[in-house]
Amino acid sequence: MERTQNKLTKPEAMIFDMDGTLFMTETLLLPAYHRTFERLREEKLYMGETPPEQAVLSCLGMLLDDIWRKIIPDASEAARQRANELLLELQLEDLKQHHSKLYPGVLETLTELNRRGVRLFVASNGLEHYVKGVARAHQIFPLFEAVYSAGEYETASKVDLVKLLLDQHKIHNAWMVGDRSSDVEAGKKNGQTVVGCAYAGFGNGQELDGADVLIADFKELLKLYDEAE
């Protein structure tokens, strides 16, 4: 799958979203999500039923505070804060059990891009320990020059996070690679090329409008890079 208007320029760097781009989020998220609500009910912080899985999957890419406000809008601030803590704690526990997965071809493609001299980065709206924990558990952490998260840098949007990354590492020509509208916005508002990942299916049909090119398989990145001028 490709949708591109112009010939792409070879980038000096690629900046990757984590959830829905490199990482099959649902393999880690959904078991922890259900256990989070079990614990919230045990602790009497939230007594309603667990919201449908689609509620959380449709929020991927958003900042965590916004996610909980959308999923449990009537819950107390204490309940939302505890949900944050529990979800992170349970996901980090499960990471150690090696139950989660990267998308097919991610490790091999990143390794090859790294070998070809492309500078690789992560920019995620997630929490620092989660984002770095996923990268370490799946043995891709050493391939990245730096891993940026909204949780670590306390940025208000992915636009700000990517601008910080570009400025700190003096990058002028990058590809922003991601699956959500926030990734498209972060790339475009910072003047970069956007590669939209259309394989996760967490967003709506317009999620990747504005991307320069769409890929249906992560491994297509290598071909795009080789064909870029």
TrEMBL record:
Pfam families: HAD_2. SUPFAM superfamilies: HAD-like. InterPro entries: HAD-like_hydrolase_sf (IPR050155), HAD-like_sf (IPR036412), HAD_2 (IPR041492), HAD_sf (IPR023214), PGP-like_dom2 (IPR023198). This is MTA/SAH nucleosidase.
